[in-house]
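Task 17 of the worksheet. Students: predict the tertiary structure of the chain below and write it out as structure tokens. Keep your answer in the requested format; marks are given for formatting as well as content.
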Amino acid sequence: MQEWLKVDEETLKNKVREAYFSKFSVVGSSIDFIVTQKHKDLGEINLFWAEAKQGISDIKKSFVQLIMTIKNGSFHTMQTPALIGAFDAEKIAFLPYYKIQEIFYQNDRVWGVAASKHTSEQFLKLLKELDEILNEALIFYYEKNDEELKKFIKENLTNENISKFKIDKNNFVSIYHKWSKSVKESISIDWDLAKKNGIIDADFYLADLLSNENQTIVEKLFAILNKDHYEFNAKKTDLGSIATEKTGFKDNQKAHKDFWAIYERPPLEEFWDYMIERRDLLVDQDIRERKGAFFTPRIWVDKASEYLSKALGKDYEEKYYIWDCAGGTGNLLANFTNAKNIFCSTIDKADVDVIHERIKNGANLFENHVFQFDFLNDEFFDKVDDKGNVIYKSKLPSNLQEILKDENKRKKLIIFINPPYAEATTTSTIGNTGKHKDKVAVYNKVYENYLGVCGKSLRELFAQFYIRIYCEIEDCVLATFSTLKYVNSSNFSKFRETFKAKFLKGFIAPSYTFDNVNGKFPIGFLIWDMSKKEEIKKIKLDVFNENGNFLGKKSFFPYEKNIKDWLRQYNDKCKNNKDKLAHLVRGSVDFQNNNVVFITLVPSQSIINASNENSIFKENLLVDSIFFSVRHAIPATWLNDRDQFLYPNKAYQNDKEFQSDCLAFMLFHGQNRISAKEGVNHFIPFSEKELGITQEAFKSDFMYKFINGKIKNEDVLFDDELDKVEFSNEAKELLKAGKVLFKYYHTHKEKAGYLVNASLYDIKEFFQGRDEKGKMNIPSKAKDEHYKILLNDLNLALDILAKKIEPKIYEYGFLRE
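Model answer:
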């Protein structure tokens, strides 16, 4: 088979098909190599998907390319195969599909990048993340393993007598999506009302799936299929007005029967536990966020246990009680061994059933310690009348109630949680870092009871958990995963007036390592001793990257006055000025909102209505350029994403070089969106003569005059002109690179689209163009190679100037290290 090394990819695919897959149908589309088998009811069913490469290739990279292709084409929601693979001219590799299935349901992941781009950040991250899983791939070399390869294909892909399609952990998620489209709406239930009561379609699917002769055979499920209707265990759930104890079908069960006629159920028993335990893969994202029904990655579960040991002593499990009151399916408790001291509650009764199933299979918990409880609404304690009769029965086990009532035992109680991060607000999230969910976080008793104490911070679900724990489970230990907002955000200043506790230990990790979390920001695990009332002034956390490697330490502080408070004092001085130059859109005050900080001639009406714009005049130009440059000189990372920009000290006022550096930086940064198409461009820093323009004068020479000290300043009593702006060497190099680019643009005056008053933004648009959606193309799509060289030179000079500005940002207090 040495000749295979010389053929192209299409020829290689044909040779592999003829040698090993001749008994199957083999096609290629977006996925290079698809092996299918004919089914009398289903038609062609997928057995094997593979990526093909000519010559000799890196098999792992081929697997990652295939996985990205599957996701980008939404193939994971279709009928998925038992195996995926990759092959080249010397070898072929196989991996069970279920090994990589979960990667498609991690909603924080950024997809959409071309799968063939092996140098992209997304590709390299996925390659690193899947390294251990890809090591499990079976590799056969054509020359050495020919017989073994043929035997493997026969045993794993061929089924001569297939009558119904088998369901296993490779495909149970994709079949759920088909079931949802075909069967769900035929069930007699109000799904919106059901969702509010904790009932989801996935529970009906599992009832169907784990059935024999239309009779569910796994008793602990939320819903049970009984021939022609579903039944609900009254001891498990209160369906209210949705149903009494059962519900049927709207169509005499036709859609249900048609669907299940072609699938074999139940699956093999070896898959049952996996399917029940990974019910979370079937849950809609909004429900997962509302309930916290998602997994905490094992790497951080282990790290949290390690930090509890550091903070409370190696034998803390023997001395402390532990309650996870936002337990989901209980994976946060995986490391604990002292079952008699461990409690777990969750809002979702189906998750309780999942944990009970796990207990039957060896999970180290007691069934009576795992219970349904709505932490934001339900009462902790039984209520009795004057005669001692119970008039309200709490869902908490009696032994946990006793712990909460006992002052000494409470001090030995650890509330160990990863609460949901949903936030309710009246506006959409800026920067696409997550979803704000109005009504999710406000319709509960905790919000009503503590709104006056904590203010708008209670629009965050995790803050509601914290304030109830703090106020109603006094003096316990809080060990929790969450964002750092309650430590450093000005929106939480009122919350911090109440929440006073001693910080013990903690760490932060990237948010993108957590399932179902959007954006890139730090998530902290912090341990608080709430029996010691201390104001939060400064906390220092250990920093770990996505692989658990220690990167150092980072401090977080409560912030009260921010950079917008500083800017506001200068804006007030320009209220009566009518000579507006442009608008500065300010954004919010942390790194995650830097992408909405820009200058423009025409801000949208929504920005003006939100009081989020600042008019630029000659009097506040330098101040606005400082604000702009401070926000953009330091790149946003997951680690600084939630850092707040602050009210600075006064030292910047005497640093003329810093001010001029910021002006130059603002003039040539990509967030300078001034366009001559929208009005008069006052931001051209060069004269017509410098750029070789002879046909007409600029409509405005304001910036050139401002830089050269030729603008009158009415605020100065004895001097009617501003001083000439003196630039640093780094700023001069940036201006030089800018001038070369502007000058080159003006050699194209004969071409369509040329504007004599063009801004930097206009110049980029001229060379780069826009796509069919109207979005400006990236620089690499420009056809003019010389332009790309000049733009690269400009950006290089901009980066050098940014590095010069960066230390001053910390020195003057705009940021704290």
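Marker's comment: Residues 234-244, 289-293, 424-440, 715-721 have pLDDT under 50 and may be disordered. Residues 172-282 form one domain.
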